[in-house]
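Q: What would this chain look like folded?
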Amino acid sequence: MQTRINRNAVKTKVKAKLNRVAAFTPFMLLFIPWYFFLQQCTKPNDLSSSPSTKIQVGVFDGHGGAQTCVWEAVAAIRLDSGMNVRTITSAEIAMNVLDSLDALIIPGGGGSRQYLNLGKENHDRIRQFVASGKGAVGICAGAYLFSSTPGYSCLQLNGAKAIDIEHDNRGHGVAKFTLTDEGKRLFPEIADRDTSYVMYYEGPVFVNNEADTIVYQTYAVMESDVHEEGNAPKNMTNGKPFFTANRYGKGRVFSSIAHPEATPGMMWMIPRMVRWTLDMPIIGYTSEAVKPDLFEKEILMSVTDLRKESTCFDTFLYGTPEQKLEALNWLQSHLSWSGKRWVQGLLYDGNPEVRQRAAKYIADKQYLHYLPDLKAAWLSEQDTEVKKKMEIQYLRVLSLLPQTNK
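A: My prediction, written as structure tokens:
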């Protein structure tokens, strides 16, 4: 009798529970789609969760782009564990390679030559690419190409116009800049620094083009007055935008008049710019890659310095080992722009001291593009002591990369 009562009580409870569930189910069916919708809206748009969803970046490699600028832009993107990078040509753009990319980088070189190499139909494809919600980063000549400069061949993507273009060959060197509040939020690694330094090479002098409907924000201000060459006037570059950022349609554009990708310790700023264009969360980079304190002063190349720099090329061809070592020391102390193109073959010089010093030069300057040569020089080295030191330099450069990109 007791058992029958318990069973009836259980049946009554179960039936009541099922009725409650049945009554609640229609409400849940209405709520569940909204729940997942809200989850998608609040979840960070992070494409770096798996290799198949990495951010796909293309670096334009066409006539007008300086070869070292292409190399260094590619190397900078490799610092980001959430990105894949490849070079693209005007032919590939015409064949819709942009459909497979999330962001495009136009590197330094010559903006008008890049404009001509691309052609009008590809200009339109790039504009449509950005307007559809994708990202674009212009570096130096690339920023020039993105500008709205009257009388200049440009894509009109960033709302700025270049001035004093008759003195574009004004000079180069390690230039100083300061971040705005917006810049400090994007680059927190250097937000507490009053002044930071990166390589500048005859980048455009921007002001707002009031006739353009695009409104940009300044993320950093140029503080160096560069006028060493070409009879350029004083007080033209200082106080002008260094980094600018703007919307274009559904997409975003970031413009840099300078070359973080060519600056040891500052290369990471380029993938950070790419992340901004895609409205993606920022991530950190290896401690070897983020070293803003490598440069603490302005180093602008004078005309005398340029003459000295040019003699180093002949020294590497015909000089003694001692002269080559002296030239390497001088080029490194001045962060020579041209020296990066000459040092590669010195890894295989006939003198072991020169080989060792060339390896250190490459590691100190973080020339990631030369990593295969650095590895080959280390593995093929016959001098035991030099071999050990070359391995150290190889590992230093390798440590720039996140584990996933090694």
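Residues 152 and 260 are 25 Å apart (CA to CA).
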